From TrEMBL, chain A:
<dbReference type="Pfam" id="PF02687">
    <property type="entry name" value="FtsX"/>
</dbReference>
<feature type="transmembrane region" description="Helical">
    <location>
        <begin position="558"/>
        <end position="576"/>
    </location>
</feature>
<feature type="transmembrane region" description="Helical">
    <location>
        <begin position="588"/>
        <end position="608"/>
    </location>
</feature>
<feature type="compositionally biased region" description="Low complexity">
    <location>
        <begin position="266"/>
        <end position="286"/>
    </location>
</feature>
<feature type="transmembrane region" description="Helical">
    <location>
        <begin position="917"/>
        <end position="940"/>
    </location>
</feature>
<keyword id="KW-1133">Transmembrane helix</keyword>
<feature type="compositionally biased region" description="Low complexity">
    <location>
        <begin position="246"/>
        <end position="256"/>
    </location>
</feature>
<keyword id="KW-0812">Transmembrane</keyword>
<feature type="transmembrane region" description="Helical">
    <location>
        <begin position="505"/>
        <end position="526"/>
    </location>
</feature>
Automatic annotation (TrEMBL), chain B:
<keyword id="KW-0813">Transport</keyword>
<dbReference type="InterPro" id="IPR017911">
    <property type="entry name" value="MacB-like_ATP-bd"/>
</dbReference>
<dbReference type="GO" id="GO:0022857">
    <property type="term" value="F:transmembrane transporter activity"/>
</dbReference>
<dbReference type="Pfam" id="PF00005">
    <property type="entry name" value="ABC_tran"/>
</dbReference>
<dbReference type="GO" id="GO:0005886">
    <property type="term" value="C:plasma membrane"/>
</dbReference>
<feature type="domain" description="ABC transporter">
    <location>
        <begin position="15"/>
        <end position="249"/>
    </location>
</feature>
<dbReference type="InterPro" id="IPR003439">
    <property type="entry name" value="ABC_transporter-like_ATP-bd"/>
</dbReference>
<keyword id="KW-0067">ATP-binding</keyword>
<dbReference type="InterPro" id="IPR003593">
    <property type="entry name" value="AAA+_ATPase"/>
</dbReference>
């Protein structure tokens, strides 16, 4: 039977070409989506700066949802620093390094800010010198930094040993440093002495009492290196040599520096109290002194080394200086033994001045050769129950930069949103192409019935034949899919959606899934397409084989109408859910309707054809009359080409306009909700220096300025008895945001946004039981569980996201710990703008931008991504449509020849075919527009309060032109070809 | 020219072939210097074994195909040198066809099929004439059916009406009974003969069935692209013997 099927397939190669093309495209699209999805789940950044560590211990950067995919957490979660010493003592461990990263950026001697290298996050570019031991094959030129004002930088910066640079580190104002070493490694960043790094990153343990000599013993016996510096001397024969010897001097200097900073903070608070609403509120709330201190520090900490010197010797400084001095391995070890095994995340509370005190980002271990697995197993035993992850090999990449690595979750999202549309369209196209191919063989199949094939055999034959064709097309299709996924990744990287260093995961799983899926679809579709012919009595089948079944099947029509009704129901979604997900229902509704049209089409086309033919004037020209008669009589064939064309129209209109409408509504929300005219940010520094806010507020003409940050929250909530978990972008605001943002608050107010509080958008307030005054449980961007009170409910959720965190709540749970940007509202005068511009220019790394971007300049990357998706899917649709039309026209060779035999001139045949093409194009456009209308009207109502969507005007006419040209060209060319064969020959050889 | 040639006495022959040759690409010589004349009101049968060139002869004589050499006149009009469109228009006006495979357009009803050539020529169908024909072939109650709903004999009779609807100068029938059972074949042959006898129609029929050919006034026997014999008032028996002899060569 199979051989038979193959031989028949070879005979019908032209009509099966359409099937092959459909399957090829489908395989490419499904494989590509699969590769994206798999990469989103399994792709790892290269180990990069951890390349030299054999075992890495880091916090879990994923939130695990029962029965669902884990959600990536973008903010760095920390590890207790004391664990370093414990791990260092494990047998087989050569070296244990507690790595910490904090915002740092270098300004070269010419005053230029050096950009972070590709794949590096400025928010965690600063490290302690010991972290160089985690690099793979790093060569050090010069000597390790030994004093607090010495630093090592990457050789790629182009600096030389001895250069004097300024470094803006963790929000402190730029300070002068001398370069003592160049680190030759593509992953090298900025290295301070370990003590300085601990101090700059505010990681020193809080309890001064812990800073005893106890740890000194540990250091002596340890082979490993902690965040501290002492131990380094023992092991670090090469790189660490200089460090240990300098510890004493180092600590001393540090103490002084820190004292200055703190004293200054206090002074700053006092000075600003009158003007700073933020500080005032905190003072009023007055629940804890720490919060107050925090505000002060953020506002003004360490304004300048010189300023610090002036204010030096303040009393406040003393206890904290002790803390900093204790910032060596010794002190940390002390704390850890007290707290071993405790969950890392609860270690820091949101309300302390140094919420991440006593932690490191991760611990890297170097082990003796061959000991990796054994040590890893032992480390797992040590950290069991703490929630920490022990990573080796490629998994180390997950610990490098959670903020960068978490971008891969975008791939999952993307693949998820693509999957629906890709499956619908490829399924539709493939089944459609099979329908045409089987219809073209109806006569063969009928004749086979006549010579004794059973209905089952006929269906098996159809399935076998289609499977053979699909198998041929699958191989190049899948290969193309991998290429397509790679192209798509390039696009995403190009648009800064995806980090350059995140590779795709290439495994056979997407290919396998594609094969299973498509073969199932093809076999089922082929059986269905051959169903009618196979079930008919043999003689009737032969008789019917030259025309079409007279009455379209009723269940088919009913199913189609049902789908169209369902799509109408689906298109109501944007009215109920004013989110991007709600809007995506629009395009799904459109496509479902187009599939409904494909099913109900024959009945509709026939009815319309009958009506038109009956009303034709008697004098109408013969080609027109013939064309309309054909449309009526070949309703199924006509539907077969009208419905994919209509689908193309529907797809372009709904998909494109859903995007642009949401975009318009979102930017409308953002525009009207943003009162500040300027945004001051410092992405290149990893965050704004802490004195920026005060400096901006002091400028003439500035009415208000408030910090604005974004992070991610994971919000599990109960819905319909299930727990749904959603990860969403969240703003981080202070009460001062009232003056620069208007979120459309309907209940409560942003004034209460202090302590453990949040504001939520009205879209989520209701369904998630998060009304004003209620308490919500969230997980912050580093995975820390928090409980917060809702102090405000706002309307502009589309522009500002579903949830806003108070800055107090988010403190200590972001990677950088700094404010990302300031929104500034001025009196609109040129003076104010000049002041701001001058301020930004004077401080390298600060970027001033207008909050009202000119149209088009700020096209978000998802628009490009969606545009690419539209182009690819539309190309696939059009190709398949063209194939189908060509196949359908080629199948009419006999009919064309018969017409010519009875005296139809070639010109009349062409005229008839063109008129058919016209009818097809018109039907596709009308039905496509009709099917898109309801979803788009409802979309406009839901998002813009008007019954039409927003978006450029050109897609509609462009779609119309495409449809007309496609139908014309794909009918004209095969017709002309058919006309070249003498009619007498054509009828003879059907 | 054609309108001038009304005078029956001086009317040009329905078909006149002079020295017609047809060579197909590849050098196959299907017709070799064939000359023949078919007068109005006569019934000519063309016989011959497969590959003898009888179908090519018909295609050339009917203007379906252009000869590579020689002259073909249909109702006095030369077709050599006419392009496809002109030939089609000439066929539409002067020639009717009946094929073995009927070649009815499946999407059109029987009535639409019958009037199709007239519509194509933008001519008003002669309702009375068509009703006469339809009643004569016994299809009056089948006019609104689709071809697929008719029996083979009925389809062939519908095709015959279509061929005659435009009152052509000549009707070509290519194995008209080849696909029919004996009874239907008889009916169709009777009809053809009656058209000639009663209505003065001219019919050229290609067939390999001696019994069918025996209904014609004249029978040509072809072999290797040439006319090898012309028999007037042929008898089925003699024809069969002649064909058998040709087949044995």
């Amino acid at each position: 039977m199979f051989q038979f099927a193959l031989r028949m397939a070879a005979h019908r190669i032209s009509s099966l070409l359409a099937v092959a093309c459909a399957v090829l495209g489908a395989a490419a699209l499904i494989t590509a989506t699969g590769v994206l999805a798999e990469s989103g789940l399994r792709s790892r950044l290269p180990p990069g700066r951890l390349g030299g560590a054999d075992v890495v211990v880091a916090a879990d950067q994923e939130y695990h949802v029962a029965g669902d995919l884990p959600i990536a957490l973008p903010e760095r979660a920390t590890v207790p620093a004391g664990l370093t010493a414990r791990l260092a003592r494990l047998p087989g461990v050569v070296l244990a390094v507690g790595d910490l990263g904090f915002p740092a950026a270098v300004t070269d001697p010419h005053g230029r800010l050096l950009p972070a290298a590709a794949g590096q996050d400025p928010a965690a570019a600063g490290h302690g010198w010991s972290s160089t031991r985690l690099l793979a094959d790093a060569r050090v030129e010069g000597r390790a930094p030994a004093t607090p004002t010495e630093v090592a930088v990457a050789a790629t910066t182009g600096l030389s040993v001895g250069d004097c640079v300024h470094i803006t580190a963790n929000g402190h104002a730029a300070t002068a440093y001398r370069v003592t070493a160049l680190v030759h490694s593509p992953d090298a960043e900025i290295y301070f002495t370990d003590t300085r790094a601990t101090q700059l990153s505010n990681r020193a343990p809080k309890k001064p009492s812990a800073a005893s000599g106890e740890g000194g013993m540990g250091a002596g016996t340890d082979t490993g290196v902690g965040t501290g510096t002492d131990a380094n001397a023992g092991v670090g024969t090469d790189t660490g040599a200089g460090v240990g010897t300098d510890t004493g001097a180092d600590a001393g200097t540090d103490t002084g520096a820190d004292a200055d900073a703190d004293a200054d903070a206090d002074v700053g608070t006092n000075a600003n109290a009158g003007t700073d609403a933020d500080a005032g509120t905190n003072a009023n709330a007055g629940t804890d002194a720490d919060a107050d201190a925090d505000v002060g520090t953020n506002a003004n900490a360490g304004t300048d080394a010189d300023a610090g010197a002036v204010a030096g010797g303040a009393v406040v400084a003393v206890p904290r200086s002790a803390v900093v001095t204790g910032g060596s391995a010794l002190a940390i070890r002390g704390t850890v033994s007290a707290r071993t095994g405790g969950p890392a995340r609860t270690a820091s509370s949101a309300h302390t001045a140094a919420p991440r005190a006593g932690t490191v980002d991760l611990i890297g271990l170097r082990v003796f050769p061959g000991d990796r697995e054994r040590v890893a197993a032992e480390v797992r035993g040590v950290v069991a129950g703490s929630g920490l992850k022990v990573l080796t090999g490629a998994d180390r990449g997950t610990a490098v930069a959670p903020g960068v690595g978490s971008a891969r979750s975008l791939l999952v999202l993307l693949a998820g949103s693509l999957a629906g549309i890709v499956l619908l369209i490829t399924g539709f196209v493939t089944t459609g192409a099979l329908g045409v191919a089987i219809a073209g063989q109806r006569r063969d199949l009928a004749l086979m019935r006549a010579v004794g094939a059973t209905p089952r055999q006929i269906r098996r034959l159809a399935a076998a034949q289609s499977t053979a064709v699909a198998a041929v097309a699958l191989v190049p299709g899948i290969a193309l899919g991998y290429l397509l996924a790679d192209r798509f990744r390039t696009l995403l990287v190009h648009r800064d959606v995806l980090p350059d260093r995140l590779p795709l995961t290439l495994s056979p799983f997407p290919a396998l899934a594609t094969v299973l899926l498509l073969v199932a679809v093809v076999r089922t579709a082929a059986r269905c397409a051959a169903w009618r012919t196979s079930k008919m009595p043999a003689t009737e089948a032969v008789a019917e084989s030259r025309s079409e079944p007279r009455a379209p099947s009723r269940p088919r029509t009913a199913a189609g109408l049902l789908l169209i009704a369902a799509s109408c129901a689906l298109s109501v979604t944007p009215l109920l859910q004013r989110t991007a997900i709600g809007a995506s229902a629009t395009s799904i509704a459109g496509i479902v309707a187009a599939i409904g049209l494909a099913l109900a089409g024959p009945a509709l086309v026939r009815a319309a054809g009958e009506a038109v033919v009956r009303r034709l004037r008697p004098g109408v020209s013969a080609p027109t009359w013939l064309a309309l008669s054909n449309v009526r009589a070949y309703a199924q064939r006509v539907t077969g080409v009208v419905s994919p064309l209509a689908m193309a129209v529907v797809f372009v209109l709904t998909y494109a306009l859903a995007q642009t409408t949401v975009l318009a509504a979102t930017s409308d929300d953002t525009r009207t909700g943003t009162l500040g005219q300027y945004r001051l940010s410092a992405a290149a520094l990893g965050g704004l220096p802490t004195d920026t806010l005060a400096a901006v507020r002091r400028l003439p003409g500035v009415r208000a300025a408030a910090p604005v940050g974004t992070t991610t929250v994971v919000w599990p909530y109960r819905q319909f008895g299930d727990t749904d978990t959603e990860s969403a972008a969240a703003l981080i605001l202070t009460p001062a945001a009232r003056d620069v943002l208007d979120l459309g608050v309907t209940q409560g107010g942003l004034a209460g946004l202090t302590g453990a509080t949040v504001a939520v958008s009205s879209e989520v307030a209701g369904p998630r039981d998060a009304g004003l005054g209620s308490r919500v449980r969230l997980f912050l961007g580093d995975g820390a569980p928090v409980e917060a009170r809702v102090v405000a409910v706002y309307d502009r959720g589309l522009g500002f996201g579903p949830v806003v965190l108070s800055r107090d709540l988010a403190a200590g749970h972001t990677t950088s710990g700094l404010d990302q940007s300031l929104l500034v509202r001025t009196d609109g005068t040129a003076t104010a703008e000049r002041g701001l511009t001058a301020l930004a220019a004077a401080r390298p790394g600060l970027a001033l931008s207008d909050t009202a971007p000119e149209a088009g300049a700020d096209t978000p990357p998802e628009v490009w991504v969606n545009l690419a998706v539209i182009v690819v899917l539309l190309g696939y649709l059009l190709l398949s449509i063209a194939n189908r039309l060509v196949a359908a026209t080629a199948q009419r060779r006999t009919e064309i020849a018969a017409l010519r035999l009875v005296g139809t001139t070639p010109r009349q045949i062409l005229a008839m075919m063109r008129r058919e093409a016209g009818v097809i194009a018109a039907a596709a456009l009308v039905s496509g527009a009709a099917l898109s209308a309801l979803p788009l009207v409802l979309l406009g109502e839901g998002f813009l309060d008007r019954p039409w969507p927003a978006g450029p005007g050109w897609p509609a006419p462009a779609a119309a032109v495409t449809v007309v040209v496609t139908s014309y060209v794909t009918i004209e060319l095969p017709t002309r070809r058919a006309l070249r064969v003498p009619p007498a020959e054509a009828v003879r050889a059907p | 020219m054609s309108t001038a040639a009304v005078d029956t006495a001086r009317r040009a022959p329905a078909i006149a072939l002079a020295g017609v040759g047809r060579t197909y690409p590849g050098g196959v010589r299907a017709l070799d210097d064939v000359s023949l004349t078919v007068e109005h009101g006569t019934f000519l049968a063309v016989m011959g074994p497969s590959g003898s060139g009888k179908s090519t002869l018909m295609h050339c004589a009917a203007g379906l195909d252009a000869p590579t050499s020689g002259s073909v006149r249909i109702d006095g009009r030369e077709i050599a040198g006419l392009n496809e469109t002109r030939r089609t228009e000439l066929r539409r006006e002067r020639v009717g066809f009946v094929f073995q495979a009927y070649n009815l357009i499946p999407s059109l009803s029987v009535e639409d099929n019958i009037t199709l050539p007239l519509r194509l020529a933008a001519r008003r169908p002669d309702r009375d004439w068509i009703r006469t024909l339809v009643e004569r072939v016994g299809l009056a109650d089948r006019l609104h059916h689709r071809p697929a709903e008719l029996s083979g004999g009925q389809q062939q009779r519908a095709a015959l009406v279509r061929a005659l609807a435009a009152r052509p100068a000549v009707v070509f029938a290519d194995e008209p009974t080849g696909a029919l059972d004996l009874r239907s074949a008889h009916q169709v042959l009777d009809l053809l003969r009656a058209l000639v006898d009663d209505l003065g129609q001219t019919v050229v029929m290609v067939t390999h069935d001696p019994a069918a050919a025996a209904r014609a006034h004249t029978a040509l026997v072809m072999a290797d692209g040439r006319v090898v014999e012309t028999l007037h008032h042929p008898m089925a028996g003699r024809l069969a013997a002649r064909l058998a002899a040709l087949g044995d060569r």
